[in-house]
Amino acid sequence: MAERLIRAIDCLIEEGGQWQLRPHDIAIAAGRITALAAPGSIAPSDNDNVIDGRGLIAVPGLVNAHFHSPDTLIRSSAPLLPLELWSLHSAAGRERRSPREAYVSAMLGAIEMLASGTTTVLDHIRVSPDIDGPVLDAAASAYRDIGMRVVMAPILADIPVAETLPLTPTDIGGDDIAGWGRRRPLPAGDQMAIADGFIARWQGKSDRIHCALGPSAPQRCSDDLLDRIAALARHRKLPVHMHLLETEAQRAIGDRHPGGTLARLGEIGLMGPRTSFAHAIWLGDADLDRLADAGAGIVHNPVSNARLGSGFCPLHGMLARGIRVGLGTDSCCCNDSANLLETTKWAALLGNLVTAGPERWTGPARALHLATAGSADVIGLKLVTGRIAPGLAADLTLIRHDSPALVPLLDPARQIVLSGASIVIDQVLVAGETVMQAGRASRIDQTAIWAEARELAAARLSDTEADYAMAARMAGPITRMRQRLAKERAE
Ligand SMILES: [Zn+2]
Asked: What number does CATH give the domain 4-60+389-441?
C-alpha cells in the first residue's frame, strides 16, 4: 500500500552510464520508493497523498559529500587567499560557538541545499575550539527539524595547527608569530568520549540522521587519536571522513612520516572502503594506485580547490583507476555556495583544460553520477539514496519542464548540469516528504531563521580584530613557505 503517489512523472534514470528520461508512476511508502510503474497503472488509495507529475522531471536528490555547517553563519567573510592564510581568517568566526549559532548555521546551509536540489549532506562539522556535545546535538537537531538527510561526521583533531605546517626559521624570518595556533586541544580520550556519546544519542534514532567519524586530517591527529578512531569505527561500523593532502604544505609535512601519509593510514586500518577523503589533490600515481587497491573513496571539491588555489585534483586519474568518487561543495567560507549543482558543472568541465582528448573528459553525465550515486556510495549510503529505484529512499528533486534551461529539451542530464543555474525546482522530497516547495522550506519558518542569522553573524563578526591581526602577522611566513615549497618542487 502506497502512502504517496507521484503520477505520470518523467524520471531521470541512469542505465549503463547513460541518463534516460522515463515516464513513471512512483509509489512511496515508509519513506521509500516501493514501485516504478507505467503512467496511470497505479491506482491511488483513498489515503494517498498524490502529486500530479505532469510537466515535471524527477531527478535523484543530490548528495553533498563534503560540507562544514558552522561556516555558513559567517559565509563569505574570509578573503580569497590560499588555504593556510584563508584558515586564519575563517577561524576568526569559529571560536566559542553557542548551540543556537550551530543550529541556525546548519539550518542556513540546509535551506540553501534543499532549495538547490540537494537532499543529503555529509556535515564534517568542526566545533571550535574543541568537539562539544551540545553544539553537535544542536546542528543535528537543525537537520531533523527541516527534514534533510545528513551524515554527521564530527571533526576530531589533537595536534595544534602550528605544528602542522612545514615552516622553517628562514620562512619565519623576523616575524612575530608567538601565540599563533599553539593552544593544546582536548586529549584524544576526552574527544572520543564526546563523539561516542553523540553517536549513541543519534545513530539509529531517525532514518534520516546517520553518523560517521571525521578526523580533521592525518597531520592534525596523533597516532593515538587515529588508533582510537579506527577502533570506534570498527566497533560501531561507522564511515570515516577526513581531509587528505589538500595543499602542497600538507604534502610536505605528510612526507615526514616513514612511507608517507597513506602508508600510515593503511597501517592503522583507515584506508578501506568505509573511508572517504576530501580533496586528495597532492597525490602521485603510486598514491592513487594504493587508494584504488584499498577501495577508499574520494570527495572532489573543485570550486573550493580553485577558490583556495589548493591545486588541481587528478579526477581523471581517479576515475580511470575505478576509485569511488563523490562531489562536495566544502564550506560557505571557501566556495562560497552550498549549491552542489554548480560544483557538478565544474567537475564536468574543469579537467578538459588539462586532459588531452575528449574521450578522457569527465562530462556532464558522469558528473551527475558523481553528484548522486557516487557521493551516496562514498559516504556509506549506497543502499539508501542517490538513485531513483525501488527500495531506495524517495529523495527526489522535481524540476519543471518549463525551466528556461530545459527548452528545448534535447539532453536532460547535460542541460541540468551545464544549464543548472536556470532550472526551476518545483519541490524537493526527502523520504517521500515534501520539505521544500517553490523555494520555501515546508517545516520551518525560513524568514525567521534568516532574520536571526543576520543578527548572530553581525555579532560574531564584530569581534575579529585580534584574529585578523594574527592573520596579518602570519602572512609573511606562510607566503615564504609556499614560495619555497613551489621552488623545491620545480628544481
Ligand atoms: Zn573541508
From this structure: 2.30.40.10
